[in-house]
Specification:
about 160 residues; alpha+beta; 434 Repressor (Amino-terminal Domain); 7 strands
């Protein structure tokens, strides 16, 4: 007899999939997962079914071509030009788009990177294009593989 991988009891075990991992557990602990189609043989590594092989062979990171939104490089100049063309002060523009005057000032003086939310407000207000779409390779991680950043991650780069 082998011991349960969860509680350590010595009894007959069955293979159960618990939160994505196939484990050898006792009858009591098997309630925490779903029965796996892999028979348990003590001392022998289980062979995975074709479906489980596909899952385990799935790459953790997927690269794909995706369109991303990028603020135009001359954003500050366009903002100032369009504001002055309409004879608006920074204060009046800020009130019209529901932002602080200091935000408009910082955007025009390039002391602040604009958020897409603000840029879209300004695009709508002025009727000009301030965002362009670029294709770029984007890394996506499987949902279950996302985790918090550790100190080791910071120092290893």
């Amino acid at each position: 007899m082998s011991s349960c991988e969860l509680c350590g009891k010595e009894e007959n075990l069955s293979r159960v999939k618990i939160e994505g991992s196939v484990m050898s557990v006792c009858k009591e602990c098997s309630r925490f997962g779903k029965r796996a189609s892999i028979p348990f043989t003590p001392g022998k590594e289980p062979t995975l079914s074709i479906d489980e092989q596909k899952i385990s062979n799935k790459k953790l990171q997927i690269r794909e071509e995706e369109k991303i939104e990028v603020v135009v490089s001359d954003f500050s100049e366009i903002l100032k030009r369009e504001r002055e063309k309409r004879e608006l002060t920074q204060e009046k523009l800020a009130k019209k788009i529901n932002e602080k005057e200091s935000v408009i000032h910082k955007l025009e003086s390039k002391h602040m990177e604009p958020s897409l939310k603000i840029v879209k407000k300004l695009e709508s207000f002025f009727g000009v294009k301030l965002i362009r779409k670029e294709s770029g390779e984007v890394e996506k991680m499987e949902k279950e593989e996302r985790r918090a950043l550790t100190l080791g991650d910071l120092f290893s780069k």
